[in-house]
Amino acid sequence: MEQQSRLTTVLIFLVPQILSLIIEEYKVNDKKAAEMLYASELYKGLEDEQTKLWHLSANALFEMFDEEQKTGKITYPEEA
């Protein structure tokens, strides 16, 4: 349970940062940005503690999100 609590805490800080980047780069409103993020494979991976994606910066996660949006694929970094 402690791992899940830590993951939740990290997501509380990361998600708004990623959403801000989506809003800025994709020129969408906050609702659309949230829909895009929560529907992404990246977000599914982010919610899975075992992927360790939550260790990455918001900028790195946004780059992965952007790649997924443009190509339909995600390249996971070695350290994730």
Describe the protein in words.
The chain has 80 residues and is mainly α. The protein contains 4 helices and no strands. Helix 1 packs across helix 2. The chain starts with a helix and ends in a 9-residue tail after the last helix.
Class based on secondary structure composition and strand pairing: mainly alpha
- H/E topology pattern: HHHH
Task: State mean pLDDT (0 to 100 scale).
Answer: 90
Q: Give the quaternary arrangement of the chains.
A: single chain
Unreliable sequence segments: none
- Computed CA radius of gyration, to the nearest angstrom: 12 Å
Number of helices: 4
Biggest sheet record: none
How much strand content do the residues show? under 5%
Helix residue percentage: 55-70%
Number of strands: 0
How many distinct domains? Answer: 1
Terminal CA distance: 21 Å
